[in-house]
Task: inverse folding
């Protein structure tokens, strides 16, 4: 290659790095806002809508979630990772997603009485029919959103993804103040989808043309099909608990389970999915460059997992105070559920860079095989845990996630070049900080409430956070390796800030 060619290649790499850095900065800021908004929504609506009403929506939401995976069909990720995407291919993908969404919308409306009969809850008919329109709305928005990601227009997408739930929450609060029932939650979900659709269409700047048969779609459908199957398997295993609790224990315990899950796991999903949005286009372009690919995975693990797992450790130790602050009176039984979900979320976050690898290297078939194995673990954990009620189910879910973390490294290292050993060591160093932080948070909360009269939940949580920070500081002082990890996190954040300018 000539000197000019090398220079151009290096400039292209730097340009890609700057765009990724800007995307990471914008995405981090928007996801911080979305997480705060999600937590605020849970906190506000939990004081307007009782657990039983939440349980009714959760029964339908489990079915709707399966439909949403079918509606996407893995085609958004297929569009984002494709090296080349013609206008005709994008148009075809749009119409496929719309067609699937329309079919699912009709199916949801038609099947509403059957779902209500399954759970023996007549109110589910109206809930199911209202939420069925989310399939069609999201089908219309899928490829416009994927186009914004592919073009790395992260700032525009961030504005839409923050503004839409803000508007929806406003409507849900109004309905909740009037009805104090499940209609507030239904309005929130439908309004979020509708506002997102309007935003991505206005920002996308393209109108789909009629579909074409000669656009060359086989590769998209092959990748999307493998990803779809793996997502269905994973979702079914993750949400088996909803069906078990709903069918055997009723809407009350399911409402507790659902709110604890939504308070913790939904913000985690909102954090991890956009990290994929930023990482996937970049990793797909450097998938054949082993050193750069491995370096990005190792840095990605530290940037994503270190702060998340430390926060989750505090949640485990101070789960009662967290529930008191964010859910309020009447939700105290959700505390052990929240602690179990925090353990599960930490393990999933430590393993999440493996998911980036599957997508960036087009290993959707291997991802399906792995998902089937982990689904068996999740199903076993939930079914065994169900012998001890709703708390046992949450504990079984956490135990399966703990087993999946080391399994994920070993499994992926068998099929592709992957720094599993170094990632495992990095994860163990994160846990070496998180465990004492969690113990400190628990001990601080116990001491605050140990005088016989419980302190306000906000006081307990504040003391737990301060204690966790103090212990983390001690860990950094005592272990040079941990200081290096923290330094890497700071270095990456500084680099992102500088490149984003």
Result:
């Amino acid at each position: 290659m000539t000197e000019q060619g090398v220079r151009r290649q290096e400039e292209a790499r730097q340009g890609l790095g700057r765009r990724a850095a800007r995307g990471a900065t914008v995405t981090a800021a928007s996801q911080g806002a979305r997480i705060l908004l999600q937590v605020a929504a849970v906190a506000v609506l939990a004081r307007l809508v009782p657990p039983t009403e939440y349980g009714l929506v959760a029964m339908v939401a489990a079915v709707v979630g399966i439909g949403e995976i079918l509606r996407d069909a893995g085609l958004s990720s297929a569009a984002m990772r494709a090296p080349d995407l013609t206008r005709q291919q994008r148009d075809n993908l749009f119409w496929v997603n719309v067609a699937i969404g329309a079919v699912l919308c009709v199916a949801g409306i038609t099947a509403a009485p059957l779902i209500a009969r399954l759970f023996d809850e007549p109110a589910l008919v109206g809930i199911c029919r209202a939420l069925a329109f989310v399939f069609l709305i999201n089908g219309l928005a899928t490829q416009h959103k994927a186009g914004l990601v592919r073009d790395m227009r992260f700032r525009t997408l961030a504005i839409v993804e923050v503004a839409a739930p803000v508007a929806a929450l406003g409507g849900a609060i109004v309905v909740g103040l009037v009805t104090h029932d499940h209609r507030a939650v239904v309005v929130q979900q439908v309004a979020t989808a509708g506002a997102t659709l309007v935003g991505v269409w206005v920002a996308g700047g393209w109108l789909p043309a009629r579909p074409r048969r000669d656009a060359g779609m086989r590769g998209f459908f092959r990748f999307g099909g493998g990803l779809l199957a793996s997502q269905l398997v994973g979702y079914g295993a993750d949400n088996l608990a909803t069906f078990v609790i709903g069918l055997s224990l009723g809407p009350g315990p399911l409402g507790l389970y659902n709110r604890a899950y939504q308070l913790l796991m939904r913000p985690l999903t909102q954090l991890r999915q956009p990290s994929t949005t930023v990482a996937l286009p970049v990793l797909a372009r450097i998938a054949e460059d082993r050193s750069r690919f491995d370096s990005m995975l190792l840095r990605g693990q530290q940037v994503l997992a270190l702060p998340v797992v430390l926060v989750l450790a505090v949640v485990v130790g101070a789960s009662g105070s967290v529930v008191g602050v964010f859910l309020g009176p009447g939700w105290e039984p959700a505390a052990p559920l929240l602690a179990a979900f925090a353990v599960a979320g930490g393990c999933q976050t430590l393993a999440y860079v493996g998911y980036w690898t599957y997508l960036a290297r087009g290993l959707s078939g291997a991802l399906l095989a792995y998902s089937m194995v982990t689904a068996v673990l999740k199903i076993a954990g939930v079914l065994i845990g169900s012998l001890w009620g709703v708390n046992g189910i949450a504990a079984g879910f956490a135990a399966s996630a703990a087993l999946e973390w080391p399994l994920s490294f070993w499994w992926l290292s068998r099929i592709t070049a992957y720094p599993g050993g170094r990632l495992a060591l990095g994860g163990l160093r994160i846990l070496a900080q998180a465990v004492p932080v969690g113990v400190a948070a628990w001990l601080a909360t116990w001491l605050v409430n140990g005088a016989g009269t419980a302190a306000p939940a906000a006081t307990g949580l504040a003391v737990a956070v301060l204690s966790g920070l103090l212990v983390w500081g001690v860990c950094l002082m005592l272990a040079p390796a941990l200081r290096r990890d923290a330094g890497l996190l700071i270095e990456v954040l500084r680099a992102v800030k500088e490149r984003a300018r």
Remarks:
- The CA atoms of residues 287 and 361 lie 6 Å apart.
- The two ends are 31 Å apart (CA to CA).
